Amino acid sequence: MIQIRTNLLFVSALTCLGVGLATGSVQSKKKHVASVKVVDYNRDIRPILSEHCYKCHGPDGKEVKGDLRLSDAKDATRERRGYFAIKPGSSSKSMLAQRVAVGNTNDPMPPTDSGMPPLSAEQVATLKLWIDQGARYDKHWAFVAPVMPTIPTVTAKALIRNPIDNFIVEKLTKKGLKQEPEADNATLLRRASLTLTGLLPTQGESAMLAMDKKPGAYERAVDRLLASERYGENQARFWLDAVRYGDTHGLHLDNERAIYPYRDWVVRAMNQDLPFDKFTQWQLAGDLLPNPTLDMKVATGYVRMNPTSSEGGAIEEEFLVRNTFDRVDTTSTVFLGMSVGCAKCHDHKFDPISTKNYYEMFAYFNSTKDSPLDGNALYAEPTMLAPTPEEEKGLSENKTLMTKLESQVNLSEAEGWLTASRPAKLKVADWEVAGPFVHKNNDEAFTTDETPTTWKPIKIEVGKVASFIKKDNASGYVRTSIESDTDTPLTLRLNSDDGIKVWVNGKLVHSNNIARGVSEAGDVVKISLKKGPNPIIIKIVNGGGEDGLIFNYGSDKDARIDNAINKKDPVLTKKTFLNDGPDSATSKDYRAVSAKTAKIEAAIPRTLVAEELPMARQAYILRRGEYNLRADKVSRGIPAAFGELPAGAPANRLGLAQWLTDKKNPLTNRVFVNRIWQQHFGTGIVKTAEDFGNQGDWPSHPELLDYLAVKFAKDGYSIKKLHKLILTSATFRQQSVVSKQKEAVDPENRLCSRGPRFRLDAEILRDQVLQVSGLLISREGGHGFKPYQPAGLWEEVAFQGSTTATYMQDKTADIYRRTLYLFWKRTSPHPMMLSFDAPSREACVVRRARTNTPLQALITMNEPAFMESARVFGERLVKSKSSAHDRIKLAFNIALNRDPSKLEQSILQSAAQRYEARYKQSPKDAEELAMVGLAAKAKDLPNDQVATWTMIANTIFNLDEFLTQH
Amino acid sequence: MDPIREFELVMSRRELFGRTAMGVGSAALHTLLRSSGLAAAFAASSAFGALQKPQIHMGKPRPGLPNMPSFAPKAKRVIMLFMNGGPSQMDLFDYKPKMEEQFDKDLPDSIRNGQRITTMTSGQARFPVAPSKFKFKKHENNEDGAYFSEILPHMATIAKEICIIKSMWTEAINHDPAVTYIQTGSQLPGRPSFGSWVSYGLGSMNEDLPTYVVLHSKVGNGKADQALFSRLWGTGFLPSDHQGVSLRSSGDPVLYLNDPHGVDRNTRRGMLDDVSKLNHLQLDQFGDPEIAARISQYEMAYRMQASVPELMDLKQEPEEVFELYGSDSKIPGTYAANCLLARRLAQRGVRFIQIFHRGWDQHGNLAVDLPSQTKDVDQATAALIKDLKRLGMLDDTLVVWGGEFGRTVYCQGPLSRDNYGRDHHPRCFTRWMAGGGVKPGISYGHTDDYCYNIVDKDGNVINPSVDEFTPGAVHIHDMNATMMHLMGIDHTKLTYRYQGRDFRLTDVHGHVVKDLLA
Question: Is there a contact between B203 and B212 (Cβ–Cβ < 8 Å)?
Fold first, then answer.
């Protein structure tokens, strides 16, 4: 495909340079040459050279033909045996201009057999003009750090609310376009609420805005939305797309992996407005920061997020390399807005990134402690416990309470109790073993008790498996002696594979003929010891396969008391006294709090984190990107074309993160503010949000992009401030009506000649029907939930032994949680997500497609959550209002945030009459429709009424207006 | 409002704005002017028999890219029969009689030549040769005959139709990367699948059914042990409307196709009419052509609700068809039933059809499990070719059979004359193609006596490189390039710019294998 990028800026001499154009079809292809035209290398020339010439005459050192690099000013303009490829100031003396000329048959460029498209006449003319004007090369705009631009003065009559509007209006004026008037407050609130929180405004919020008659009411509403907990949940999902967050490993077995605390941290970070520089550093290198907090470590889940495998037969080094590629490619796309991936095999064709540069970046990520093969483990190490803030708070409160209770204990009383409760002093002698004795079958082996004469020493450790039979249908004996300093009862806990008998002081005290594994539940045997040595013999019988014995003795309580006596620590003494001592009001309280603590601790999730190996792995340039084709050694570094590491940056991920967030970095801030713009307007200022390189689209408003990037840094990297700036601009507040003129001149709304208008994302579509119906629950964080999903989707693709081979839908209200918390199986995500353009989260995506398909229509019509929400919303309408008119009005207000027009009223009223007649006539159909979904049916509502208003709700849920941000 | 009047409105709206919204919308709008949703639904629901091709309703096409196809296609559609797991080439097609005397002897180092092997067998003390236990017989084709294993009796009967490529190769040695590679051109996730490229490039041939359909098959012995991934029919960075749509044998045949209980066709029609009226009011007020596109998508969804059940209703097929495909073909979700469905899809203008059959990963117990696999697929595969041929469709339908890599001649696990296992082998494997401009009844490429290396016809080892085409060796990129060529696509021209790079299915590789073309 050839992209047309030949738009020249025909400007009057007064106009400042560097203000770009929208791309493509806006411009008519033939334009009369104005008296003065200034060619801009970055905007006008580089795309031509990059598209048509760089493949052979670009930055890739290995591919350069004819020893000519048109990407390099010095090389392109040097003399070559009396000739010049480019002779600045003279296109007629420049070979380039002749070779590419339209109609040139004398060794034309690009060569006809190269597969590269020839230049158009217009492109040739532009090139010539550029050469004649001096052939000035500029560094690619995105590789030069942004500076605060001059804010254009607007002379046109326009509404200017902040500098964003100056940039936008200036361009609109030039195009002969006018701003649209501002939308009404209700529309603006809906728009702002959807883009910030991913939900519709509540009726309360709508009422609050309606009552706020003072100037700045909308601004205050935006502040409330930014302060809402729902804000972080919506913002997080954009980030989770970019970092390819999933709840499974993503490859082959695709087992579950424990990493959702990372997702919950992203939500928190957004809600707390963690500055973007910190947000970045924690994720890339939280583990390397001094005294990292829990959150800093949880954030390093970013590094671990790449899909992993443990496929049988996989070669470790191969996967180490693949995992590292994935980390480099994702990091470069997320923060630098460009893929450096091409350079893994050869120097980048279009951007100044060499293979060496690539592997220097690679070297930052190849030395984490995690195994390249994940072992298909839920907790692929390293992991850590990641209590939520609530859990941490609970633990800390309990600790305070327990300390207080401990302080109420009289120490000498506790010590007295401890001494009195002292368990007998026991000493277990060395063990001996006899056998095996083989029999015909298991039962014979069990019933026949041998009297062994030959005993050999054996080491048996408390709590560890000892195996000493190693034969089928056989028995074996171990013996020892426990010496006690007093007569005492004692509990033995014995696991055995298989049957077991126990003799103490010559008497059989326990016998259990059972077939079991050693890790299954064992036997508890209570025995009495006499003062002095007590000989013990244990017989184990093995029916077949493995055999084993685990020996444990004494109660936990005894062990605790013993420990406290030995340690002589007053606090421990008091703790033990409260836990195990006599009942009292204090001890009862103490034990209750202690139990609560244990419960919290048991619920704390683990999460995958990144940790650095003590010694970094050597990195090499890998030929063709093959793991086993090592070339030169490389050390860590960043591509020189992007600047240099800040002074003192360590040679590890932290140093990389410091460079990414350094104010001299040309890309990171631009890339991020562009994505925020894209979120609000549907398209970024740079349309190719994933590519700011030479091949990327020219920004629609380069100076606005720089303004936002610089302002963002100035505002302390506050993402909330950035949102507010954009949302309170007059540009954002315009009505989203598409006039005929604007449809022709600005079809994609790249010029922001009207308010944003685009189909809502998958998550919002699902969340808003749940919200409108009242089913949505706001439980934050935690394990992903499993909503309605057609049967068999996981089963038909999954590896049979996978922990995610079978889909088990949740049967609780969890199915009404926000879509952000959906359990994300990366090899088979929920079908609704995929149909509505959510990525699979196997690879980094910073810009979703936005399609419009019949499969989407089927989902919003029939998907169970949509249908159930329609039913519950229908019930709500029936319960709240008695007339069809009022119900329709209410439905519109809740779902569309406006009153229906007369025509809309009449269409839906006649629809309601139609449904009523139908469902009165078919009570069975009415009943079936009124039963849709797990949610309890409202009592005392007639089925035909519920069915009727379910269909009306279903109609509203399928309106373009409902599905669209506008 | 009268539906036809509505569509005229839509049309005039479109003309008013002078541009289409998204690609899908434009074609749909175009056709909607001529056939209302209701009319199309009625047309689709009329009964017709399988062999009465002209009566089958095929909607109007959605155009692809302006430069596609690059030249006149031989194949209008593709049916890809994907055997997931790595079928054992030397137990099926690649007859190696000399291995008989090598039983339990070590694979010579001169053959292995230090090539890497998976860590499942790299720890084995020995690499003993396991000759195939199955008998082979030569069957007449259009050259000097082709050998088929005794467990492929039906495929042997289509020897004159198929082009057997014995010298396929890939770099990938594990399932996930290998199957991702063959389906998307990259071993790492993130790229569009073959079918989605075709949908993007060539567009649709109908308006009632998806362009790219995926069918999953039950495995007879229940051992569908290797995994599949939605990325195999996903769109990567292409817009998601090009993704493969699964047609399912239980539940809704297309997800969410059926209206809920209590909502009949008339109710749905009435609801859609209301939606359409209300959306038109919005269109009048806001002028966004996307609204018009959405109206047409809802109509298309409504038509799919009729056309898909008609498609899935195999009862329309005469008994002789079931006899041809085998008795399994009456059981929904079997490979045989899917083959029959594939033919019906092909008749209705679905451009890319892919059947997945799992369970071909015989690391052990091959003697029992491989015949069970071939029993699932043998008859129906042959039947599909014969059926297409008698319908006159084989000439413009490309059928491809095969897996992601091959298997080793040396045994994994215990070896006896009667049973053995085989590890993954990427250095040579067999796939076949038929119809759609492929040279019928030939074999292409050779392997050495150990079925370990690709060799030329004189037996000299070829060490192929992905960078340049060596005649006699067919890299998976070469096969994909060849398949695209048959569909009228220059594989180097069907590109999509993402992150500054023009991506394509064959990455920077792939050569059309001219010797395979009729």
Answer: no
Instruction: Tell me the pLDDT band of B46, cut-offs 50, 70 and 90.
Output: very low
Angstrom distance (rounded) from CA A72 to CA A660: 26
Encoding tokens for residue A349? 């064709």
Amino acid at A178: K
Choose among B175, B251, B291: nearest Cβ to A252.
B175
Pairing verdict, β B352-357 and B397-402: unpaired
Q: Cβ of A401: how many Cβ atoms within 10 Å?
A: 17
Instruction: For residue B500, list chain A residues with Cβ-Cβ distance below 8 A.
Output: 338-339, 350-351, 688, 691, 693-696
Helix (H) or strand (E) holding B167: strand B162-169
Asked whether the beta carbons of B87 and B403 are under 8 A apart, the reply is: yes
- Give me the amino acid identity at B309: P
Tell me how far apart the alpha carbons of residues A39 and A7 are, in angstroms, rounded to a whole number: 10
Q: Are B410 and B127 in contact (CB under 8 A)?
A: yes
Is the preceding peptide bond at A761 cis, omega within 30 degrees of 0? no
Record the tokens describing residue A128, joined without a space.
């010539």
- The per-residue pLDDT for range A717-739, each reduced to its tens digit, is 999 999 999 999 999 999 999 99
pLDDT of residue A36: 52
The percent of residues above 90 in pLDDT, for chain A, comes to 67
Q: What is the CATH number of the domain that holds B172?
A: 3.40.720
Question: Percentage of chain A surpassing pLDDT 70?
Answer: 96
Over 50: is that where the pLDDT of A13 sits? no
Phi, psi of A779 (to 5 degrees): -70, 125
Cβ-defined contact of B262 to A840 (cutoff 8 Å): no
Radius of gyration of chain B (CA): 24
Would an 8 Å CB–CB cutoff place A842 in contact with chain B? yes
Q: Which residues pair with B169 in a beta bridge?
A: B475
Task: Mark yes or no for CB contact A857/B300 under 8 Å.
Answer: yes
pLDDT tens by residue, A334-375? 999 988 877 888 877 777 888 999 999 999 999 999 999 999
Please check the confidence at residue A773 and state whether its pLDDT lies above 90: yes
Q: Is residue B135 part of a domain?
A: yes
Question: Token match 């009047």: residue?
Answer: B5
Q: How many cross-chain Cβ pairs, A to B, lie less than 8 Å apart?
A: 281
Rounded Cα distance between A875 and A905, Å, is 19
Question: Does a cis peptide bond (omega within 30 degrees of 0) precede residue A436?
Answer: yes
Query: Which two tokens mark A294?
Result: 């829990």
| Residue range A435-457, pLDDT digits in tens | 899 998 888 999 999 988 889 99
At A912 the pLDDT is 97
Q: Kindly state the tokens that stand for A387.
A: 């209590």
Q: Is residue B179 part of a domain?
A: yes
The interaxial angle of helices B265-286 and A943-957, nearest 10 deg, is: 40
H or E segment to which residue A891 belongs? helix A884-895
The pTM (predicted TM-score) of the whole model is 0.82
Strands B496-498 and B501-503: antiparallel
Contact between chains at A831 and B255 (C-beta distance less than 8 A): yes
Give the tokens for residue A909.
């009223």
Count of domains in chain B?
1
Does residue B6 surpass a pLDDT of 60? no
Instruction: Report how far residue B320's alpha carbon sits from residue B426's, in angstroms, rounded to the nearest whole number.
Output: 40
Q: Which amino acid is located at B236 in the chain?
A: G
Domain that residue B98 falls in: 78-264+330-516
Rg (CA), chain A: 36
Residue B104, classified by CB atoms within 10 Å of its CB into exposed (0-12), middle (13-18) or buried (19+), is middle
Residue B497 lies in a domain: yes
Among residues A85, A4, A91, A93, the alpha carbon closest in space to that of A52 is found at A4
For residue B311, being part of any structural domain is answered with no
Number of H helices, E strands in chain B: 12, 19
User: How, if at all, do strands B446-447 and B136-139 pair?
Assistant: unpaired
A2 vs B: CB within 8 A: no
